[in-house]
Every structure is written in C-alpha cells, then in structure tokens.
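Margin note from the TA: students keep mixing up input and output lines. Inputs are the sequences; the output is the structure of the whole complex. Example:
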Amino acid sequence: MSLAERCAAPLAPERIIHGGALDCARRRYPDAPTPWLDLSTGVSPRPYPISTIAPEAFTRLPDENAIAAAEQGAAAAYGAPPHVAVVAGAGTQAFIKCLPRLFPARRVGTLGFTYAEHAAAWRAAGACTFEAQVLDELAKADVAIVVNPNNPDGRLCPPEALTQLTRRMPPGSVLIVDEAFMDFSPQLSVAPTAGAKLIVLRSFGKAYGLPGLRLGFALCDAAVAERLRAELGPWSVSGPALAVGAPALADAAWLAESASIMQDAVTRLDALLERAGLTIAGGAPLFRLAQSDQAAAWFERLCARGVLTRRFPERRQWLRFGLPGAPQDWARLVQAFGVGDD
Amino acid sequence: MSLAERCAAPLAPERIIHGGALDCARRRYPDAPTPWLDLSTGVSPRPYPISTIAPEAFTRLPDENAIAAAEQGAAAAYGAPPHVAVVAGAGTQAFIKCLPRLFPARRVGTLGFTYAEHAAAWRAAGACTFEAQVLDELAKADVAIVVNPNNPDGRLCPPEALTQLTRRMPPGSVLIVDEAFMDFSPQLSVAPTAGAKLIVLRSFGKAYGLPGLRLGFALCDAAVAERLRAELGPWSVSGPALAVGAPALADAAWLAESASIMQDAVTRLDALLERAGLTIAGGAPLFRLAQSDQAAAWFERLCARGVLTRRFPERRQWLRFGLPGAPQDWARLVQAFGVGDD
C-alpha cells in the first residue's frame, strides 16, 4: 500500500499479531504435549522473585508516594539525570496509545520492520506512517520512532546517532526511542539524554519477567510528562505493579545476575538453532531471530511438540525464539528440534 | 463559567481532587496519630480475601482466556444477558478516558453535581459540558452521563427513567450510566438493558475493597465493545486483576454477606454523624454524605485525630464519609467525634 493509499484508508482498528497467544496455540494444536513451552515472547524466563505484596497495594488506590517510589526507582535504574522526568504507566503499550494524542503529527516514520503497535497507534490517530530503511530517512519525520534494540531483529542504533537525529529533525518534531529490550545493555541507552525532543520508553515486564503486572515508564521533559500524566489519568498503574516494581528496579545485583544467565542462554540457544540448520538473523539479550526456508515447517513441528515460537506473516522465513529457563524447558526444546544438545 | 466561556477555554489538564490522598494528609497533619483512618473514599472496608495468585498472572501477558473469564464473571455478576457485550478495563477510569474518543460529541450533559472525571474527560476532548438539574434536561445531549447511585449524594434514578431517557435522546446519542456504587443494589442496575445507546460502567474495586487492582467493566453492544477494545489496546488489564476478579465476581455469597455488613455499618455511621450534629444529606451503601455549617471545622478536627474524610471545595457544607471496618477503626472514629457510641 502506498503512503497516499494508506492515508486514505479508513481508520478501522488494525489486527496485530503478538507473541504470547498460548490460548490460540492450544486450540490449533489440541494434541500437543502440555504444558506448552512459550518461547513466542521476548520476556525473561527468570522472573524477579515477588515477596509478599503489602495488602495496601490491593486495598487502597495507588497514591502519590507509591507512584513516586516506582518512578524514582526507574530514574535510578535507567540512569536518568534529575532534569529528566519519569512517568509510570501500565506498560509501554499505555504510552504507545497516548503519545499520538500529545503530538498531532502528519508524517510518522518508524525505522525498519519493527513492533507494529507504534505505527498502528499513529495511523489510528490520523497520521501517515512510513517505514524508513536507514536512520537518516527519519530526519524528515514529524515523529520518528526507533525501537532500540529492535524487535524482532535486534538491530542497534548507537546512542550518538539517535541524539544527532534529533538535531536534524524539524522544529517541533520528536524522536521516540522504545527501549523495551535495553535493560541488559544500559550503556547503549539514550535515557540520560531524554527530554522535550527525545522520549524514551522503557518496559519493566520484559527483563524482570513480570509482564502480567503491566508496568512501564516514559522518560521525557517536565512539560511532556505533565501532558502524559493528564492523558493517562489518575490510578493508571495498579498497586501491585508499583509495589513490586520499585524494589525490583533498585536491585542492581539481581539484574546483573540475570544478564549473565541470559547471555549463557543466548549462546546455548544460538548453538541449538544452528545445529538445527537455522541461521541466526539477529537478536537481543532476551530473544533470537532465526531465518530458514523451512521456518514454517519448524513452526508447525515445534507447535506439535508443545513449543510456541513467534512467526511473522510478513517475513515467512523468520522465527523468533524467546529463551527457555528451567532445565526441563531446555530439554523439551532440544527434544523438539531433534538435533541433540551441545 | 458560562457554557460559551467553558467551550472557549484552553484545554489545559484540569486538576481534580479525589479521595484517598493520604500522602497529602500526612504532610498537612504531621502530628496526627497514625496509622491514618482513611474514610475519604467510597471503597469497601471489607476487601475480598485474596488467595494465592497463580505465578502466571505475573509472569505471562494476560491472555484471551484470562480476559474472557473475568468478562464472563462480570456479565453473570451484573446480570448482563448474552446480547450485552462486556469489556474489561483497568478501572472505570480507563473507560472514562476512552469514551470521548469513541463519540465525537458536541454537547455532553452530566446529571447534577457528580464525579468530576467524566465531564473533564469530555472537555479535554473538545466537547462542551453542562450540568443538568433533572434527568429530562439530558434529553438534548449528544452524550448524557448519569452516575447512579450518584457520588457523592447517593441520588438514585430508577432504571425505567434511564431507559426512557435513551428513547428521548437524539439519534446517534448515547447515555453512559456509571454504576460504580451499584453492587449492593443490583435490582436498580440498567446493566441488563445495556447496548448501543446505553453504556454501563462498573467498578470492581469499590464493593470488593480492592481498588489498587484497577479493574472495571463496560457493558455495551458488540460494535461499541470492539471499538473500546481497540482504544484500550492489548493487555490493558493486569494479570493479577484478572486472576483475582474472575473468582471474586462469581462469589455471590460473599457479596451478600458484605451487603449485610455494610448495611449495619451505614446505620451505625448515620447514628454517629447525627449525634455529632451533622445532617445526613445522602449516601449510598459504601459512603454517607453529611452536611453541616461546621463541616470545615469537623474536617480539620478529624484530620488532627488521624481520620481523613472527603470534603468538596464546591460544596463547603459537605463531608463524605466512607465506612470504617475493623472495631478499632470504629473506636477511633467515635473517639475523634467525641460524642460517644450508640
């Protein structure tokens, strides 16, 4: 569809396929062995241990203190200096939905094939979207969106390239950098330079393995933060999300340990995929993108063995794999591939 | 401010005062005895007992099955027949924010002095709002909003009057009935007649005493439901909210027991307020509205004794009281009033 056609198209809700739809997989493969091993998301298989959640997190409306504690924890964890405002929301998705209402953009560019909810949210708000192949092409956008590292291929933009881009973009424009998968490579984050022209989105659920909580953060300047809070409205984040998120974000030792475990898992998974004849086309610390002419057959074979991966209707040679965690999950994946371990 | 002035006013975010802001009270009354007794909300003091929440509610993205289970539980609890669609959201507030984007309304009427977030959300979307004094005045609105029972005065509209109103409203118009406090008087709900022209909002957190979870429902027809889901986006409700909400909504015996306990509490609170010289100006099963020339003094006196109530800058003679729960909370309230019990 051309840009002109796309802009003329009616604004019907778009159907976007996501990972994690185990219920669909169960219906399609009723004979698969259970429980399913879900590798269709980029969520860490090592959840942050939840100690007892104070009853007040459930029985009271989340108050300013609880929100501030989580936001301060996020600021510290993400390396945001004092002049960067941090806003808590119910997952990155809450911000993806909000941002088009803050910036009445005409031309919205995303970098490459990426997480589909961004462009869809802007189209639903009436913007025209285009997919840039290189960062430079985004300089002409009113709003540019870069998922970094990119989902699903793991492409990384150096932070300097992103801050330079903001200087080349027209006045009043904004760059949104979705760092949902940045937790294990903090040195590449642009969080420290977030501001009026550079909005950074961070996901809590992925690296901390707790996506059901619905917690994410936007880093920006004070003026954008105020408008974001107004758009989100009061009590948009649950008490349990704030209660779990604040101490977890302060636990740098746990995150460092997870980084090391995920690095080992990535090495092991890459080796397994290659033994199965798939090519590693990319990846980030929480997922790998494999490429194969046989991708569709592998998807089916793995499903039949109770292992759900993420395929891409637009890229039929691709399969994305999240990381197994428990030893028995690794054993099932190895067995499903039928190529032996190590 | 006249209607014309209000419509010409810039769309700056409005500051709305809510109950539950214990952190502000703590700052203003640092010497008050702790813990504070928070009677500033209309949340039940008897929370639904939370048994263990399955780890998957935290470690996985909420899937279709979890959402469907909560929505089916809500449909049964609220008496919604099969043709009424039920949509889960992160509290009534999520729907209040969404609805103005579904209906490009010009004239939006609310019935009487009521929960302020409704009109504010429509004004932020560019609509003109007016406050109707009687139900009939809403017949000319593109969108009419009735909080029933009303917060804070407990005014009740009979269900027939509301369904009749939808028939008198212009084509394409819609009536939104916010039944956040309807759980203990289900016979007065219009949930069974929800549809294209009548959208019903229900709050889970209030009657079940778990507002921190952020769970609410919209009842409407299938077409509105599809648009609401698109506006809310994927995973807008947390896993814990769905996991706790579904079984709680199916527990009719617990709700009936709570209704009886709240009825006794209301009787006791009304007697106490009257002994203190306040007039009962209204109320619903989870809160009472008291009126007094001394309301401001009572507010201060109760705060100094660590009891937070809800005052209204626009109605200085009013104080709203939530219900105490534990015996020691009753004892503190009685002592704070200084008028003795029973």
